[in-house]
């Protein structure tokens, strides 16, 4: 009798342990967290699959490093060059584009650099005007996807952003928007985070709508030969995020609350 009790208890503990393992860690960007999208999507994924998701939201550069250390099971990030480098180095298997929005340059209402007047859809000229006017510019400075795009824009106009009013924050998008607002400065933001926060900001969009400002988000699957992780569960997340249900959720997110969608699905199964 005692042996049967021990056996049943062992089976019960093993089943509990197995159930507890149905969890993945998603390393992702602060913009997906700050925009509220993850809070909107993840409960639906958990309900459909029974897989719990732990989110680590950092800049894309840090998210990639977290995955390299084996502290994540899947990536949801937005820096194509860094993602392709990650795969080339053997850490990732493949990259699937999921959705996009765009970056916008935001600044104070008085617009001291006159960006909206002279460069409303030209980000290169906008950056040049900000630099030449010695205006405050708050940078993410954290190797995130947004920071990578900012650095690319500076490189395109051969400007090293080192002037006195250029602030390197090392912070997430929401915090950077608040700093820019407090200091009457400019910054580069993903549109979704700006829209979700704009009612509490005095910042306005001064430059938008250029192809260089497209902001693509992608899933990156990890290489099990390089990184120990929950490969099968991660693949379930990838399949779900590319599903028709996820497509509809993503395309509709923001319409009811903000009057416009914050992301556009462009994934391919």
Automatic annotation (TrEMBL):
Q: Which InterPro entries match?
A: ABC-Tungstate_binding, PBP_domain
Matching entries from SUPFAM superfamilies are given as: Periplasmic binding protein-like II
Instruction: Give the signal peptide as a residue range, or say none if absent.
Output: 1-19
Gene3D superfamilies assigned to the protein according to its UniProt record, in alphabetical order: Periplasmic binding protein-like II
Keyword set, alphabetical order: Signal
Domain named PBP: which ranges? 21-245
**Which PANTHER family does the record associate with it?**
EXTRACELLULAR TUNGSTATE BINDING PROTEIN
- Protein's name according to its UniProt entry: ABC-type tungstate transport system, periplasmic binding protein
